[in-house]
Amino acid sequence: MASSAREIDLDPRKYVGLSFPLRSDNNNDFALTKNSLQQAQHNLKNLLLTYPGERVGQPDFGSRLRAICFEPDDGDLPEKLQAEILRAVGLWLPYINIIEVNTFTDAGDENRVIVSIKYATTLDPETLQSITVDAGYTATRS
Fold this sequence. Notes:
Distance between the termini: 36 Å
Number of helices: 4
Helix content: 25-40%
Order of helices and strands: HEEHHHEEEE
Largest sheet: 4 strands, antiparallel
Low-confidence stretches: none
Oligomer: single chain
């Protein structure tokens, strides 16, 4: 009988999926995530940092965040980035509910666009997670 996502999350002997970026760890060929919250974070990071056309076999997978950041500045950058994030997540990761998207620039470099996203999953809607992505595509968890 198949285990539910909650049962897998609670079982310390089970893994949910691959951790990104791909790398090995001490126990496996690839580092793995232990629960659905970790996997959702890695899936969201992977989606946002993949440009459409980069993924073999799924050319529509990804988001246009990088391209939007390099469009001429018309004052609508935060709205465009939020719309693209909502579009990509709605299409590819419907189990992630975007709560808030904030766009700001780095105080030391006004040309660096940073996007902070707060989200929850349908499996655990009470637990808020966040991820921060910059235009140079360095993702960190907050």
